[in-house]
Amino acid sequence: MGYYHYEVTDFLEDQYFKSWVLTPSQESCEFWNNFLLTHPEKAEAVASAKWVLLGIRSEMEEDFPTEGQVTAMLDEIHSRKEATSRWPMRGLWLRLGASLSAAAVVLLAIGWLREPNRHDNHVSYEELLSAVDAPLMEQTNTTTAPILLTLPDSSTILLQPKSSVSYRKDFVRNALREVYLSGEAFFTVTKNRRRPFIVYSNELVTKVLGTSFIVKAFEDARQVEVSVKTGKVSVFPRTDTEVCEGIASPELAGTIITPNQKVLFSREQVQIRKELVDSPEILASAVLPAPLLKFQDMPVSALLGNIEETYGIDIVYDDRLFGQCLLTASFTTESLYEKMELICKGIEASFEVVDGKMVVTGRGCN
Amino acid sequence: MASPFTDTDDRILWQRFRQGDEEAFTSLYQRYVRVLYSYGKKLITDDAVVEDLVQDLFIDLWQSRERLADAESPRFYLFRSLRRRIHRACNGRFNERWDLIDEDLHPITLPKETEIIESEQTQKQKDELDAWLKSLPGRQYEVMMLRFYQDFSYSQISQLLTINEQSVRNLVQRAVSKLRQLTISVVISGLFLFLLK
């Protein structure tokens, strides 16, 4: 064979070469080793082509689903494949149908859960636990200092006094990482997109893929609070029909909060409100720009943009009014709110926090 | 190779499945679910979305089995319908991400245990090649993968990507020539070191 004039592409296209690289046999090994000995000038091309084939293969195999996933998907396919065959319902409709039926199941479960006190919207920790049909592990902090717990997936929970957490004994094997909380805890969740981490606390459900956040949900408190330190979390009220879809869905559904934001869930009004945390901090990140400390004749839009990025918050303002205002100042250890006050003073404006965003209003400068 | 199953085997399974043979349907699933899934993962990063799309693909396949034609290559049929589904899903909600994938660098985890010919420069060369694979734009990577891992013909790839055959060849050429530049620079720098000694 005329392999001596082959280039990388020719080797790649050659079935015999491919079969040697991907499924070597004694015969093909002998042939190619011999070829390399007699044509050392082809070593480079052979090595490159070989690497391309092996590289792409290992690249692809790295993303193979686990055997568990393969079986779970097949089960799902078998259970759904007859369901709607009379209708030409396809794709999205099928999914919608499936999620609606899942919604119905969870609603039923919630209905049952709440039956003892039908007129009371409150869901207690005990009620949450009684709805779990698997053996649970429970940890309660009866001391006066926070205690640090490590879950089987190496996520950690800093449990505050007078607080308890429970999780299923088969936490590791379960498709979702579910934790039940009463009281306050700071969660640092290890990243695993395949297995969302869910915290049930009173009537609020918090779902994350990997991040750190605080949940405050005391039995007798009037609101449940979730605030984010790093990453993104989504929260939804337990009563919400979104809940089942939200938990199962790949995206973070419901109300999404990002660092420096928190949500307050009013247990009376069953309502979620987004706010900023009390003292927003500059995000620690290598990819974000550095916070501006000293600036001279800087357009306000650039300054606000920098604050938005370094704190990960949204600032709403009218660019036509304020965009061209110039400021000269320097910051040292001011908090976010102090910085905003200084800026607003400089451009004769005021600001307030609405729905987790800073809204700047005023007459602007000409 | 990626496909240890011949198209003939597949066609027999396909015929049996169209007549309602669940076993044949399951075999087709077992044969292709892994490669379809990992192909999907290259186009959409979200595991759960890929899982959904693959599941829906097989569910719809079963439900429409009586209307399906005889497929020349069932494997090609499966890849094409998965890609269409992904495209559709992307046009709606994942538009941005799709665009990014076409233009930007391919998110790649590097193979760790790939050995090439043992020599002093192996490590350096391997690093360069790793970087090459990593730096391929999404489309070039996809074409390389479909041609040299999935063994699809140029004409099949052109149908999959809905571009003409020449464009597919060009994409392969571009990816390979980028590789060649790299290799040359490695060889030259190797030579240079040699001269310095």
- How many strands in all of chain A? 18
Work out the number of β strands of chain B: 0
Q: CATH superfamily of the largest domain in chain B, called what?
A: RNA polymerase sigma factor, region 2, helix turn helix motif
Spans where pLDDT lies below 50 across 5 or more residues of chain A:
85-119
Largest sheet of chain B: none
What gyration radius of chain B follows from the Cα positions, in whole Å? 20 Å
Main interface pair?
A-B, 47 and 54 residues
Write down the secondary-structure element order of chain B.
HHHHHHHHH
The count of helical stretches of chain B stands at: 9
| Named CATH topology of the largest domain in chain A | Jelly Rolls
Mean pLDDT of chain B: 74
Q: In words, what does this structure look like?
A:
Chain A: Residues 293-359 form the Protein FecR C-terminal domain. Chain A: This is FecR family protein. Chain A: Residues 147-233 form the FecR protein domain. The complex is a heterodimer of chains A (366) and B (197). Chain A is 34% helix and 28% strand. Chain A is built from 11 helices and 18 strands. In chain A, strands 1, 2, 3, 4, 5, 6, 7, 8, 9, 10, 11, 12 and 13 form a 13-stranded mixed beta sheet that branches. Chain A has a 3-stranded mixed beta sheet with strand order 15-18-17, with helices on one face. The longest helix of chain A has 24 residues, at 91-114. Residues 85-119 of chain A have low confidence and may be disordered. With 197 residues, chain B is mainly α. Chain B contains 9 helices and no strands. In chain B, helix 1 (7-18) packs across helix 2. The longest helix of chain B has 32 residues, at 165-196. Chain B starts with 6 loop residues before the first helix and ends with a helix. Mean pLDDT of chain B is 74; it is low at 92-121 and 187-197. Classes of the chains: A alpha+beta (366), B mainly alpha (197). The interface between A and B is large, with 47 and 54 residues.
